[in-house]
Design brief:
This protein is an alpha/beta fold. The protein is 36% helix and 14% strand.
């Protein structure tokens, strides 16, 4: 999201509060220094209480600063968070376009684009909650730039780097939120594009990378794509160690052997 906003003229500032153990005063000082037009918080079910507590702290000091929540939990149960007096906006599902349009709405005070016209947005006005229609899923993931990992100083993290190569899942497991969050349509990046991203990271951070973690819900849903990925690793003699997540019904012994042979 930060990379997408920066490409469109904004200056994103990203804090990983799991990594940076800030005091409340540190957080307040940071916000005072950068003077943002809004604060966005990524929310999962396991951190929703902490997210709301953080929103409360920020609002108690910066009363007019909009607070935006996005992520898995607000997508699935937006009513859990928009009801908080400290939350102004909720972004549901994929956030790139919705976040950019909301940035424009906040920056122009609604003259550039109205809140009502932003798909995927939930917002409040005079105590009333408005839930806009969901935005269509992005079909071409290759339109996005590579994540600008400098925004989070990726070198400070120990040895593992995440890579996203697809969205959605062809499965529909009753215990999993993947389909509700990213859709049942499996959308992929061009695998050569993914390989080039890994090559770039190896060049930039070679001595700091131990392994790559492919964060897709179902990386092996298209076996031919995985085979191409492994072929590229061998063809260019790329020394990497990687792992991924998948489903047992889109795996077989031959594919597992190929993946193991490719790191």
């Amino acid at each position: 999201l930060g990379t997408w906003l920066e490409l469109n003229g904004y200056t994103p500032h990203i804090l990983d509060l799991c990594y940076s153990k800030l005091t409340v005063q540190d957080l307040v000082d940071y916000i005072s220094d950068i003077k943002p037009i809004f604060i966005g918080i990524s929310v999962y079910t396991e951190n929703v209480d902490m997210a709301l507590s953080t929103a409360k702290i920020i609002k108690s000091i910066f009363t007019s600063l909009p607070i935006v929540l996005g992520g898995a939990h607000p997508t699935l149960v937006p009513q859990d968070v928009i009801g908080s007096e400290y939350v102004d906006f909720v972004i549901r599902k994929e956030g790139e376009s919705t976040m950019l349009e909301l940035s424009e709405a906040i920056r122009t005070n609604g003259t550039g684009i109205r809140h009502e016209d932003i798909e995927g947005l939930v917002f409040k006005r005079k105590g009333t909650v408005y839930k806009n229609k969901l935005r269509n899923m992005i079909t071409d993931l290759d339109i996005f730039p590579l994540p600008k990992r400098e925004l989070v100083d990726i070198g400070k993290y120990n040895e593992i780097i995440n890579i996203s190569t697809s969205r959605g899942c062809p499965g529909n497991c009753i215990y999993c939120s993947a389909t509700a969050l990213s859709g049942a349509t499996y959308r992929t990046r061009y695998i050569d594009n993914v390989f080039l991203e890994i090559v770039l990271l190896k060049i930039c951070l070679d001595d700091k990378i131990d392994k790559f973690y492919i964060v897709d819900d179902t990386f092996t849903a298209i076996p031919e794509r995985v085979t191409r990925f492994v072929k590229l690793i061998h063809e260019y003699d790329l020394d990497i160690f990687w792992h991924c997540e998948s489903r047992i019904d889109v795996m077989n012994e031959k594919l597992i052997d190929k993946m193991a042979d490719g790191g």
